[in-house]
Design goal:
Strand content: 15-25%
Mean pLDDT: 85
Shape: elongated
Largest sheet: 9 strands, antiparallel
Structural class: alpha+beta
Oligomer: single chain
Number of helices: 9
Amino acid sequence: MIKSRVVPESTVGIEIMKLYRIGQLSKLFDISVDTLRHYEKLGILKPEIVKESGYRYYSNRQIWRLATVRRLRTIDVSLEEIAEYMNQRTLEKGFAFSELNLERVQQKIRDLKDLERLMKEKIRDVRAVMTEAENTDIRLCELPERKVWQSDKAALNYWDIDRQHQELESEISAESTEEYITRLYRRGAAISSKDFQKGRFDRYSSSFIVHPNGKQVISGGQFLCLYYWGHENIDDIAPKHQQIQAYMQQHGWEIAGPVLEVYLLDLHEVDDPSEFLTEIQVPVKPMAG
């Protein structure tokens, strides 16, 4: 382990001129002074010299160590692991540490490729949906079974739903390495069939995020689907649900499960509520008798 030398004030001279003060090192690496002091406490980056006045000076040896720390942090190696490696560097441990970090880099590449794939799918999906959404007629759709992460908490407005989506994202992240990726999956909320039939379109029974590792399932089958633009308040939504109710009566359909609102474009993509795009999906079956 490299230990700092404490030297008296009188030694300031040519040797000191070859060294970096903590502020200079901070600017050189664009790292805060507080971070450098934290590294010192952890034993990762000891100054070459600490003067009696408390001034710290760093040599090329510390520059090398700091560059190594920066490189390791880009692949999410913890400071504790870095400290152990930097203070006990042997050929055997160094080789094992490099193998471990290679695995981390390879995993990071796989994660980035997954993110790239999902972003491409998202762009393709949004383009297709925006083209289809010009048709605001009710359509009969055959939709597959979907796995979801679901919250069964009641919600009375979009902000309740968005908060529940954030809670679900935390659950997903706790069981995987995903962070931003969860934002690329479709999300929505459900109105119970009883509330839908009673005209209670302002009360949501659950919120969900469609996800391949979801713990719950939305059954597939026939749905009456309707796109609509906007979603600022319940007054905008209610007429669309009423439109579907009238269509069901006219064409001999009855409800077969919770009614879904799937948010295709919302405040996470656009600021103007008039550009929000939602698809209502009502599961139906032919009316008995």
